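subagent[fold] <- orchestrator: predict structure for attached chain, return tokens only, no commentary.
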Amino acid sequence: MTRFRPCIDLHSGQVKQIVGGTLSDTSSDLKTNHVSNLPASYFASLYKKHALSGAHVIMLGPGNDAAAQEALAAWPGGLQVGGGITAENAKLWIERGAEKVIVTSYLFPEARFSLDRLKAVLKALDNNGEKLVVDLSCRRVDDKWMVAMNKWQTLTDMEIEHNTIRSLEPYCSEFLIHATDNEGLQRGIDEVLVGKLGEWCTKPVTYAGGGRHLEDFDLVQRLSQGRVDLTIGSALDIFGGSGVAFDECVKWNQKQKMR
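subagent[fold] -> orchestrator:
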């Protein structure tokens, strides 16, 4: 059963929708689709009102801690938090009210996957894998998907494929995967990747990147046999988009619950 999973993307303390491939340490490179005048807490309260569980707050670079904490205060225990999560601060974010923490770049020192670091994060969470989400956001390289870190600019040595997914599943409760080449472009989802995720993953997985129509929920449900959830960002009316109304996404989730 494919569900709508909302997001709160934070950049420099503001809620933004950006073109994923343009994130870097150089501000002039950043391409932004929308900068909200509303605080992160507004969106957290909105998601809480409509019981949109599994929403993720992503801190894109420094200067976002305060905004993320405001969101958590608006919905304690209802949001997942990612961006800069390490073994040193994972439990702190749970104590601040996150339902789960999302970890990416910390797992890839020198762009190489470290199982020891994954185990360290899990240990910091008292070995409670239900509190951990592994982010495998990726870029397409020929016919492969390679995990990308460091604001999605650095390719790692990890390819997303069946064996990779199965080796990580014992350590976490779910996966979050941004198709960063599609992120913020509203050019459509990576249909092949969505289908593969439905085939490979036995734990919940959320796909983000390129969603632009309400019909994309039907598409993801069909391609993944209902095993992959979908995040829509830039196309959503609450983020300045015109492709999908937030209320329609809420109604989609409600219909799934009735099935």
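orchestrator: received. Logging for downstream: The first strand starts at residue 7 and ends at 11. The two ends are 9 Å apart (CA to CA).
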